[in-house]
Write a structure and sequence with these properties.
Arc Repressor Mutant, subunit A; 2 domains; three-stranded antiparallel sheet; 9 helices; 5 strands
Length: 237
């Protein structure tokens, strides 16, 4: 694609500005969105796209941008909550729509306005949405949790940490400082093997592991390595 998008400096004050992966995902979506109506063939399906829309596949997007699939999933969830995008799912892909694309990308606003699709996020924050504030300010240690995660090699994504702890509770695993410190030691080993903390915890949550051992990640895709699964190459505009 050629051309440019409008991105105002005010984006630095939005909820996603303090989360590099969310911010990167947002900018990539802006750059990938269509600037004119056209049709795109995905497999055997013809998709009609309007300005501000794009065909989206999480694996393809992750491979193209270098953002892990877990971060991509979390980014989309946040952007939807901030009403910056909407998404319609199909069998093997989704169509993402940038909110207010025509209002902020196709018009020429006054000097004191924000000519960018990030404006919905600014307005949404000013409205004081409780759900957005809770998600944006969620600490690494969930509220009311007396256990800390200082032994972890890196600070985990709050949403992934929350899912993992929920899975542990369902498995009736003891939630103690000793347990977290030992798991932290295993996460250090996994990191040395090339696995990010978020990917380890996401895998543990998905598989409902009561504990965690670095050896359990053997055979999984390592950070920065090519995907072992075939990624469907969606056509681009």
């Amino acid at each position: 694609m050629s051309g440019y998008i409008k991105l105002h400096r005010a984006v630095r004050g939005t909820a996603i500005a303090q989360h590099p992966e969310y911010f990167a995902a947002w900018v990539h979506l802006l750059c990938m969105a269509s600037h004119k109506p056209h049709q795109q063939i995905v497999g055997t399906k013809v998709v009609d796209l309007q300005p501000g829309q794009l065909v989206f596949g999480r694996q393809r997007f992750s491979a193209t941008t270098g953002i892990s699939e877990n971060k991509v999933r979390a980014s989309l969830s946040v952007l939807k909550d901030l009403r910056m995008i909407t998404s319609k799912s199909h069998a093997k892909f989704s169509v993402i729509t940038i909110t207010n694309w025509s209002k902020y990308q196709e018009s020429t606003p006054a000097n004191n306005q924000h000519p960018t699709s990030t404006q919905p996020a600014l307005n949404h924050e000013q409205e004081g949405s409780k759900n957005v504030k809770k998600k944006d300010t969620l600490p690494a240690t969930p509220k009311g949790d007396s256990v800390n995660y200082d032994k972890f090699p890196d600070q985990p994504d709050p949403a992934i940490l929350k899912d993992w702890l929920s899975a542990r509770r369902k498995a009736k695993a003891a939630h103690t400082q000793t347990a977290m410190d030992r798991i932290g030691g295993e996460l250090h080993k996994a990191k040395a093997m090339g696995f990010a903390v978020d990917d380890c915890l996401a895998e543990a949550a998905t598989r409902t592991w009561r504990g965690f051992k670095a050896d359990w990640m053997k055979g999984q895709q390592q950070v920065g390595q090519p995907a072992t699964r075939k990624i469907k190459d969606f056509p681009t505009e």
